[in-house]
Amino acid sequence: MPSSTVENYLKAILHLQGNGRGSTTVGEISRELEVTPGTVTIMMRHLKERGLVAYEPRRGLSLRPRGVTEAMKVVRRHRLIETFLVEVMGLDWSEVHEEAEILEHVISDRLLDRINEMLGDPTHDPHGDPIPDRRGVLAKDRAVPLVDAGGGRYRVVRVSDEDSVLLGWLNEKGLKIGEEYEVSDSDRAAGVLELSRRGGKRFQLGLEVAGRVFVEALP
Ligand SMILES: [Zn+2]
Fold it and tell me: So what CATH class is 144-217?
């Protein structure tokens, strides 16, 4: 089994078990990775043997502590690579996720350490996602999806990195991580929220998109 396949499974489980239940299912993994449930089951047996997941057929499955550490290593590589591609290579934040999906499996620890050093040991990637530290520990934030926030003032903390079209569109609107916005949800029934920046233009965000933008409420 190529290690990149194992790494993608670990990363997917880490992502899916962060759903509040603390566990996921074969069905969810199969949808996330677009493989058959049978393929997932075979992989889960393999990962269980290696002590990476806790898995009993027809029960929830989750990463064991070693699995979490391994998954966090991949997440660290992914986010440091994205940061490098933006900060050093000058790519746009909408262009780096797909590249990082490939490079995260092939880059050596030595090169990654150099990249980290060169970037000054960054804590967040260009999309605002926290970068796990060397031991695989991830800083938590209190951000909520914008779609769940009511009207008020918010700071944009992070944006989902997976949809390059969305990221390109947010570029056009001039939305940036760390910026503060006034949010009006008076048109929520019509499926949109309205955002405005002090001195800036107003723009509308569909509720689906607002589920992929994470914010912290300002006092
Ligand atoms: Zn990414």
Answer: mainly beta
